[in-house]
Design a protein that fits this description.
TIM Barrel; 2 domains; nine-stranded mixed sheet; 17 helices; homodimer; metal ion binding (chains A, B); alpha/beta
């Protein structure tokens, strides 16, 4: 079963703005069609006819008009009113050029629990619709008063037995209730009129609130949409794959990037369904380098810090104002830039096939970055992540044009160092609107696997964190974001970024780096008193940790020792980590203490 | 039973920032003591001893150290580890100068369901604590593994029978489960070691998530804390009333205003418990006036608009650059100001006793605004609301110094008007951090009653709304706020404000105002097509509404007709409302359509 030829649609309710904003964003992201959400039409200054014409011009079909509520299984007087209401909406659909209407199962106190009556009245509605060339797609809401499973909606549709009446299946309504979607395969494909897709995190809350506020695009949540969609396609469904996602963040985010995020989610889903369109993600084998954009002051500060951390400036770029600092396999580029302070401007990963990595990224709507380089310089394949960070695909060791190291003139051999062997991970704070989008981007484009979302209470509010990593853990990117948009009063750093370096002996590295003058962060004694009470490390280890301001964590697989520099260039922090055994996390339990220490350091410096 | 002499405390977890920020804010707001939340201490650079000394200097007692988790009903080896952990925390408490430790019921997989074992081990802990001069307050978490009701925790404490072991009661844990708090009266007062107070909205969600993210200060949510606290005091509890509120918004808001909000909530609670400290809120009988601060351009625009709405400029202030515009009992002041555009600078309400209103406000920590006025001018009592808006207390008709109208020189008699008879309500968009604070402010300070919180999907994100009103509905203030902080991409108005005027005939007023040249907002035809389908007004009424761009709503009590001007001075909108029968709301169902129309108008003007 393939879904390569499925059309891709999106409900206007997924996006922020007026209907005009939404349609433009959907068309630009490459959608084939839209579901027109009634409230968007009602608030629009364009007439239904003008909306239809505008969609045509944009190349968007109108695949569904939705929702029509509280229709079926009612007393005769209510039925008469509901049929009048439906006819008026059929008028609108006629002007719009839409031929399928979503009718969702009733939540009305007027309705009665009578499947025969529901089927009879839906038959009547379908008859009226058919006379206007319209089809009715009946959907069981997860919180429908009497009809709230797809099996139940199918029994009613089968009983009604009208060719203009079929089902709308919505992955949220079905999977949120824990229903088994496998029986969808038993429904004749021609009775499946429409398919709405939404992912969601697993939340223990009222299903209506969960649905209205917390849906996500496929691949961002916890639902198995590949299996679900596979059942629907196996049943013979031939309509569009259409996204219907109610999400508080998307509702207020710029609809342009949100529509791209949505399209990427569908392409990713189609890939897992076996659609052959995308080149597979080449294997990644590590972080090649991290590039910091630095102004003149920050460059001095960063160079001092890197020297203190045991790095050596080993080369400079042949044509650009870029210096290469090395220690083992950890490579940091300092790129002189205009923007104030310091920022991680680029993440570079080792790819088995950089060109294929970039091609895949382009197919997944990642902006390809133009690179100015001389004819004899490496043609680094680069794309832009949602937060604007460049992502480079490299083969550092290769004897090819991808070997970016050849662009650097060696100025000095690498020094003795302080025990750093490579880059363990990067932690990048994401702009508020782009947290889920970023996780999907790294998952789909780079083929990294998202770990579960975690939250912790930082000194100035809750922080949400999600790490994406390749299966071997050699490429790790921790995405962080304030749970609420960062407020006005909170002092300190705009979207801090961390570069975490690997060491085999954190205590020795910390000692050596202090000798070298690294600007390491001091951790208060209370932390070690609490560590003693919580995890009771050996007294000699505890004393050494306290002495060196090294933080500690333990899980069922192993241990983590890690320490930090102060904030450099207003935004960048270096971290040094030692993993013992199979410790899986990034020491999130220590984040509030570390963040409070960073805040004190900044206050003291101010 | 009186609580006038109860001390007032706050848990540091209620407030944002580092421990230093939190203690300063608590002391400034007038709290007597604090609960030290362990995470705040662990992250602090001050030692426990220094924290204790600092609290002393600030006049704060340390009433509780919390929380100590997962202690009781465990196998012997775990017990040994837990006792070691407790002793280390007793050390910290000794240095801190805290004598009561909160132990919350276990959620650990190590624990077993054995009340005798729990009692025996808590007895042992209490014995160790007593040797250090420490008391143990045992609390049933609502999500405790085996112990999750206060009745159960009391059975265990009674069984343990140790003088250093008592109960901590937390209103959230008890009321969230729907437990009946009346039986608290049967617990001997000396076994009630601590009382934690939190309100919350009624939410259908996992109780742990509800507790950790959505608690509110007393008076902001749906719990009956007066009855609850009454039972605890009746039982003979003599400790502090202490707030423990986990809230995502407060966690990131400026702790100074948040601590004032917290203190106001406790003062309000004590008043409902019969504490005689506060002067009662004088009756309010209507809106005296609304004052707009306008720059020169906005003043021209506003004056034109007011003329179009049927207002007459009837006077000017004797000593200030303020013009009075009147129509019936609707009075608008235009105050020439420096700040760009137009804003509602002041809300003035008619009070039976303006001086008493201001005195009460001051006791409830509202900033009193200094007023510069000449000896022969009215001494208007004014305070500042959380968003900075001034609130005046007036007696417009009185033959006293409160009669502010006497400060205006009459320049012109009132004209024929356009049917406006007064001010129906004001709608003030609140800064994100201050929504719940504002509702409590108007409730406690002015004695207005909050109506339920509602939410609707505006074009650029969800909006939350709550109206506060006096019992007769003559003073109404609608508070609105974006559900998520307003994002970067959203175009348009910074925190819009609406002044809603009353008319007895909206259609006639709209017609007359159009003739007078009022800049009224056009409503798209789709709205009226949908209105026909939804509510089916009489065809002649529908046609008139459509003709005049008047919006319509209906509830079980009556009908609402209302229409709007465009946005004036970048922020201010006039609305004209006609209430028929007992219609209770403010037409929120029409807000998305109205907002989309305002956005179009601004886009067209840009």
């Amino acid at each position: 079963m393939s879904s390569t030829d499925s059309r891709r649609s999106i409900a206007t309710v997924c996006l922020s703005g007026t209907l005009e904003d939404k349609l433009t964003a959907a068309a630009r992201a490459g959608f084939d069609g839209v579901e027109i959400f009634e409230n968007d039409l009602v608030a629009s200054s364009w007439s239904a006819k003008e909306i239809g014409e505008h969609c045509s011009e944009l190349g968007l079909s109108i695949d569904l008009y939705q929702p029509f509520r509280d229709f079926e299984a009612v007393p005769p007087d209510v039925l008469a009113r509901n049929l009048r209401r439906a006819e008026l909406k059929f008028d609108v659909m006629g002007r719009l050029g839409a031929d399928t209407m979503l009718v969702c199962s009733s939540v009305s106190p007027d309705a009665v629990d009578d499947d025969d009556l529901a089927a009879e009245q839906l038959h009547l509605l379908a008859e009226r619709a058919a006379a206007r060339g319209i089809r009715i797609a009946y959907e069981a809401l997860a919180w429908g008063r009497f009809v709230n499973t797809y099996e139940h909606s199918w029994r009613i549709v089968r009983r009604a037995a009208h060719p203009a009446l079929g089902l709308c299946l919505d992955s949220f309504h079905i999977l949120s209730r824990g229903s088994d979607p496998a029986a969808i395969r038993t429904i004749p494909g021609e009775k499946l009129f429409f398919l709405q897709l939404a992912d969601a995190p697993r939340l223990q809350m009222d299903v209506l609130q969960w649905s209205r506020h917390h849906r996500l695009f496929p691949g961002q949540g916890a639902f198995d949409l590949t299996a679900f969609t596979g059942h629907v396609l196996a049943a013979g469904y031939r309509g569009p794959l259409s996204l219907e996602v109610f999400n508080d963040v998307f509702r207020q985010a710029d609809p342009g990037p949100a529509a791209v995020d949505a399209m990427r989610s569908l392409l990713g889903l189609q890939e897992t369904l076996g659609a052959a369109g995308l080149p597979p993600a080449p294997a990644l084998s590590g972080h090649a380098f991290a590039e910091l954009a630095v102004d003149a002051d920050a460059e001095v500060r960063l160079a001092e810090a890197l020297r203190g951390l045991g790095f050596t400036e080993t080369g400079h770029h042949r044509s650009k104002p870029v210096r290469l600092w090395r220690q083992g396999d950890a490579r940091i580029l300092l790129n002189s830039a205009e923007a104030p302070g310091a920022s991680v401007a680029a993440v570079a990963v080792e790819s088995a096939d950089p060109v294929a990595s970039a091609k895949r990224a382009q197919r997944l709507l990642a902006p390809i970055l133009p690179r100015s380089h001389r004819a004899d310089e490496a043609d680094l394949s680069a794309i832009a992540a949602p937060d604007g960070t460049s992502v480079f695909f490299c083969r550092t060791g290769a004897d090819t044009a991808d070997s970016w190291l050849g662009d650097f003139t060696e100025t000095s051999p690498e020094g003795a160092g302080a025990g750093v062997t490579g880059i363990d991970h990067l932690a990048l704070t994401q702009p508020f609107d782009h947290f889920d989008e970023a996780a999907l981007f790294y998952r789909a484009v780079l083929g990294l696997a998202p770990e579960p979302v975690t939250e912790f209470a930082a000194p100035f509010g809750l922080v949400r964190s999600r790490t994406v990593a390749d299966p071997s853990g050699r490429v790790r990117i921790a995405l962080e974001s304030a749970l609420l948009r960062r407020g006005d009063w909170a002092p300190g750093v705009r979207e801090p970024q961390r570069i975490a370096l690997t060491t085999g002996d954190a205590l020795a590295s910390a000692r050596r780096m202090r000798e070298l003058g690294a600007p390491l962060l001091e951790i208060p004694g209370n932390y070690y008193d609490d560590l003693d009470a919580r995890l009771a490390p050996e007294p000699s280890l505890l004393a050494a940790l306290r002495e060196e301001s090294v933080l500690y964590d333990r899980d069922e697989h192993g241990e983590l020792l890690h320490f930090f520099t102060v904030v450099l260039g207003g935004r960048v922090i270096f971290e040094v980590v030692q993993r013992i055994g199979g410790y899986a996390g990034d020491g999130a339990a220590n984040s509030p203490v570390r963040m409070a220490a960073h805040r004190r350091q900044r206050a003291a410096a101010a």
